Amino acid sequence: MNNRAMIQLEQVTKIFNAGRVNEITALNNVSLQINEGEFVIIIGANGSGKTTLFNTIAGSVIPTKGKVFIAGENVTFLPDFKRSKYIARVFQNPFDGTAPDLTILDNFRLAALRTQPKHLTIGNTTAFKKRVREVIARLNWGLENKLNQPMGTLSGGQRQALTLLMCIMDNTKILLLDEPTAALDPKSAEIILNTAQHLIQEYHLTAIFITHNLKDAQQYGNRLLQIHEGKLVRDLDATAKQKVLLQNMYEWFG
Ligand SMILES: Nc1ncnc2c1ncn2[C@@H]1O[C@H](COP(=O)(O)OP(=O)(O)OP(=O)(O)O)[C@@H](O)[C@H]1O
């Protein structure tokens, strides 16, 4: 791991419904640096600001105050589609990341073209198909032999795993995992998180994983953050994280 900052937040505040009775400060003066290759776990109670933090990094939420940098570039006011060359995201709902009527192969084609000019013919070659087969084969689910099957015929776990694998088709630098296994059975969840861990190491991705599962928070990643009422209240490096017991984490929730 090196010390090149991939994500930087400088005193970021996000206030929703400013000036109204339902005003809420979702992020409160958050400063954070995440370096290239880090795999950061974020925990925090419901409504503490985790998803708003993701949205701020991804560009679907623009901060009320403060600055956001990605790979050294000030992206504070850059809309999400202009940051997508850096960022891939896996959401909680397994059906959010894929097109059900398209085949597995066509979904991978779309993913590979996400940040490319639309006239490119990438994805039509034998080499591309071979790569997709190899990438999918790592799941050991036999899906590499079903490339022409519509995505909508697969289970939620299978679709979520493929969504994750599609993230690495277009040189993504940052992987945002927003409770990607919350809707899945334990075995599928384990396969997806282990796959994520391998991809992060192999492709030297910078990753953030939001989870309510404290066992996963303990098991995965090399840094642990806790958000409480819009503030970063804990930031543990790999060594400190390894020493944390599940019981400690439960107690942090008060
Ligand atoms: N678009 C929005 N408009 C108004 N309020 C919002 C909006 N998005 C989030 N909030 C509020 O900001 C606060 C933080 O929400 P956020 O979704 O970031 O929390 P979270 O930690 O991800 O919660 P959960 O664990 O339940 O997903 C909450 O009070 C939420 O209601």
Automatic annotation (TrEMBL):
Q: Where is the ABC transporter domain positioned along the sequence?
A: 7-254
Matching Pfam families: ABC_tran
Superkingdom as given in the UniProt entry: Bacteria
**GO molecular function terms noted in the UniProt entry:** ATP binding; ATP hydrolysis activity; transmembrane transporter activity
Q: SMART domains from the xrefs?
A: AAA (SM00382)
Query: What InterPro entries does the entry give?
Result: AAA+_ATPase (IPR003593), ABC_transporter-like_ATP-bd (IPR003439), ABC_transporter-like_CS (IPR017871), ABC_transpr_LolD-like (IPR015854), P-loop_NTPase (IPR027417)
Any one annotated GO CC term: plasma membrane
Key words, A-Z: ATP-binding, Nucleotide-binding
Q: What is this protein called?
A: Putative ABC transport system ATP-binding protein
Q: What lineage does the source organism belong to? A: Bacteria, Pseudomonadati, Bacteroidota, Chitinophagia, Chitinophagales
